[in-house]
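Hey, can you fold this one?
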Amino acid sequence: MERDKYFRYYVGLSALFIAGSAAFFSVFGLSKLFAGASLSVIIMAGSLEFGKIIGASFLYRYWNRIHNWLKIYMTIGVVTLVLITSAGIFGFLSNAYQGATIEFEKESTKLLYKEDRLSQLEEDKIYLKEELELSIASLPDNYITAKRKLRDDYNPKVLELNDMILNVKQDISDLKVELVETGVDVGPAIYLAKVFNTNIDTVVKFFIFILIFVFDPMAVSLVIAYNRVIEDTVSKVRPNIDPALELKKKIKKLPKKKKLVKDKPEIVEVEEVIPVVDASLGRGGIGGR
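Sure. Predicted structure:
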């Protein structure tokens, strides 16, 4: 069918895209981890990524024809490289997340500081008013002038605190606006954090683990699947043929030679069998060794 004809190309392209993407993210993630020798790490990790794909294909094709020790070592090597690739992807995505949220974290830290400062100023204002009331209450009722003087002394302090509180509130409002603007890049993560009643880091970490769980294992699985599709395609084009049957057909098609037989004047056609070299039966053709 036409659909089956192009299916192997779809499998191959999907394996190429996913494996290539996983290799790209892993290689550059590892280069960020070892920034002191990034070029060397890129070359090393890139060669290992290519070897992982070839190793997985080799194991699938020659599983029943290789020694057990080689089978075990290459299986462990492929699985280890899958884990290394997943670690590299985790590093790449984590670095991208931190780069997107660094300004957001700065503004969030400033906002927390301003909110703490506002709470402290409001507590100071309450304490100052209570102190004023206690001082006034400690004076006799006929000390009107003294009470007025106390109020005059405390009023500048209260006004100063009010100005400070207003300034901090203005700063908090500005910071909230900046948080909205800088939080656009991580807006979905903020929303999910609110939905699940957790912090943004936990949400992002959860999604990164989901991605690396299906990313590189899916790439290796699709590479093996592509090898399987290729085998099926080849078996349909070249079906299994019995070597002995093919040899008999070749013998029947050999040319016949005319020979003179002694004591008989007539010429008799005798079928002469010419030895045939067939790789499947060994050297020397029929009866060869």
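The first strand starts at residue 257 and ends at 260. Let me know if you want another pass with a different chain boundary.
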